[in-house]
Specification:
Blueprint lengths: L4 E2 L6 E2 L13 E2 L5 E2 L1 H10 L4 H8 E4 L2 E4 L1 E4 L2 E4 L2 E2 L4 E2 L7 H4 L11 H7 L5
Antiparallel strand pairs: 1-2, 3-8, 4-6, 5-6, 7-8, 9-10
Helix pairs in contact: 1-2
The structure holds iron/sulfur cluster (2 copies).
One iron/sulfur cluster binds next to loops.
Length: 124
């Protein structure tokens, strides 16, 4: 077991060394929103050397007033467009959105420890 990360207000911890044994469950599985804010949109577009409008059109879905990264349906599962299933890694790791950086410490999971445990093998 590696160094455990904890966060105030959360009853569980996270062992990041688990990611090397996992096939990227937080980037694939059930369909879900992967929200990006305007600052993140700019950063990712720059990283991909695309202009913001092209990036939005090709990679994002509008969800009311927000944007979410598109998903691909592979087999019976959905995965983020930036997930590389060959290496189980994120193609935009350096500029991935806050939602991805802050996983598994999402407010949503605060009172749903069983749910986050099912999704992530790094929960301790
Ligand atoms: S689900 Fe958990 S263990 Fe798996 S890659 Fe994501 S953070 Fe790492
Ligand atoms: S942006 Fe990267 S870390 Fe976030 S869901 Fe997509 S592949 Fe996973």
């Amino acid at each position: 077991m590696g160094k455990i990360i904890t966060k105030e207000g959360f009853s569980y911890g996270f062992d990041p060394s688990a990611c090397s044994k996992c096939d990227g469950r937080c980037c694939r599985g059930e369909s879900g929103y992967i929200f990006v804010n305007s600052e993140e949109i700019k950063k990712i577009a720059e990283f991909l050397q695309l202009d913001v409008e092209t990036f939005k059109k090709d990679y994002l879905n509008k969800v009311k007033y927000r944007y979410s990264i598109k998903e691909l349906k592979i087999g019976g599962e959905y995965e983020c467009l930036f997930f590389d299933g060959k290496t189980n890694s994120c193609e935009i790791y350096e500029v991935r959105p806050t939602q991805c950086r802050s996983f598994p410490f999402w407010d949503y999971f605060k009172d749903k420890v069983d749910e986050v445990k099912k999704e992530c093998i790094g929960i301790v």
